[in-house]
């Protein structure tokens, strides 16, 4: 059987040969499917889009972590999204983290990931004690937040009816208020080929208007995403 993602913008299909469907459910937020494949191990799809694989998925996580500032100590880190825990272990390996806050809107993403991607959850007791998980809407959470962060990672899906507010000017204003001086924002920003006009350029303009500086786009290879190229936007809160 083939698990297939159809990308309407590029009018392309990308398929992975799979052995069977392990899990399928429609939550209040999205459709979640888990497939088993020989080459990539278990595969997660959200709303018919490839998100995560057990094998060959390092490009996304490694690129994100390479953009984080490593010089500071005792960092307060926030991830909006990221309920699959793919970033967590690598973050603790590469950064000196005091507390890590994860705000995930869909609790089932965490539960399903824990079952089908267990290696991401093999953390030491010391690391687990530093993690605080909130099942909440990321926009609402950051709007009401009173904690200051050194690093904020927005690891969300592309703009859809639920996630589109995580690309809004008001959302970035709340992010700005939640960052310490010289704090870093890393935002998943879609395909630099397909999403330049609808995601990347509007996001950069909003960040510029709010006073963020050192705003840069970082493309990277991502074989299981549309056209094989993806990106992050990184910027800093002004001193």
Walkthrough of the structure:
The protein has about 240 residues and is α/β, with parallel strands linked by helices. The protein folds into 2 domains: about 1-55, Spermidine synthase, tetramerisation domain (Spermidine Synthase, Chain: A, domain 2, Roll); about 60-235, Vaccinia Virus protein VP39 (Rossmann fold, 3-Layer(aba) Sandwich), CATH 3.40.50.150. It has helices spanning about 60-65, 90-95, 105-115, 125-130, 140-145, 170-180, 195-210; strands at about 1-5, 10-15, 20-25, 30-35, 40-45, 50-55, 75-80, 95-105, 130-135, 150-155, 180-190, 215-220, 230-235. The strands form 3 sheets. Strands 9-8-7-10-11-13-12 form a 7-stranded mixed sheet, with helices on both faces. Strands 3-4-5-6 form a 4-stranded antiparallel sheet, with helices on one face. Strands 1-2 form a two-stranded antiparallel ribbon. A hairpin with a 7-residue loop joins strand 12 (about 215-220) and strand 13. The model has no long low-confidence stretch (mean pLDDT about 95).
In short:
By secondary structure, the chain is of the alpha/beta class.
Give the SSE map.
Elements lengths: L1 E6 L4 E6 L2 E7 L4 E7 L3 E6 L2 E5 L4 H9 L8 E7 L6 H7 L2 E8 L2 H10 L8 H4 L2 E5 L2 H7 L4 E7 L13 H10 E10 L7 H14 L3 E9 L7 E8 L3
Parallel strand pairs: 7-8, 7-10, 8-9, 10-11
Antiparallel strand pairs: 1-2, 3-4, 4-5, 5-6, 11-13, 12-13
Taking all Cα atoms into account, the compactness measure Rg is 17 Å
- In terms of DSSP E residues, the strand content is 35-45%
CATH superfamily of the largest domain: Vaccinia Virus protein VP39
CATH level 3 topology of the largest domain = Rossmann fold
CATH class of the largest domain: Alpha Beta
Q: Helix segment count? A: 7
Q: Profile the largest sheet.
A: 7 strands, mixed
- Classify the helix fraction into a percent range: 25-40%
Widest β-sheet, arrangement of strands? 9-8-7-10-11-13-12
Q: How do the SSEs run, as a string of H and E?
A: EEEEEEHEHEHHEHEHEHEE
- Based on Cα principal axes, name the global outline: globular
The overall number of domains is 2
Low-pLDDT residue spans: none
- What is the correct CATH architecture of the largest domain? 3-Layer(aba) Sandwich
Q: How many distinct beta strands?
A: 13
Overall pLDDT level: 94
Structural class: alpha/beta
Query: How far apart lie the N and C ends?
Result: 53 Å
């Amino acid at each position: 059987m083939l698990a297939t993602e159809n990308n309407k913008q590029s009018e392309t299909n990308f398929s992975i040969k799979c052995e069977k469907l392990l899990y399928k459910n429609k939550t209040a937020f999205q459709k979640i499917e888990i497939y088993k494949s020989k080459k990539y191990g278990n595969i997660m799809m959200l709303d018919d889009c490839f998100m995560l694989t057990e094998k060959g998925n390092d490009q996304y996580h490694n690129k994100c972590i390479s953009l984080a500032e490593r010089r500071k100590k005792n960092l307060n880190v926030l991830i909006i999204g990221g309920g699959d825990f793919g970033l967590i272990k690598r973050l603790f390996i590469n950064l000196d983290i005091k507390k890590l806050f994860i705000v995930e809107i869909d609790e089932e993403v965490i539960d399903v990931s824990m079952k089908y991607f267990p290696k991401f959850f093999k953390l030491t007791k010391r690391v687990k004690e530093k993690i605080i998980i909130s099942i909440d809407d990321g926009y609402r959470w950051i709007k009401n937040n009173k904690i200051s962060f050194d690093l904020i990672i927005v690891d969300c899906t592309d703009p859809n009816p639920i996630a589109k507010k995580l690309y809004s000017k008001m959302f970035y204003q709340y992010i700005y208020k939640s960052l310490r001086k010289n704090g870093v924002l890393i935002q998943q920003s879609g395909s630099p080929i397909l999403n330049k006009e609808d995601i990347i350029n509007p996001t950069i303009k909003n960040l510029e208007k709010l006073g963020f500086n050192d705003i840069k786009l970082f493309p990277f290879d991502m074989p299981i995403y549309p056209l094989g190229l993806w990106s992050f936007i990184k910027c800093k809160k002004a001193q």
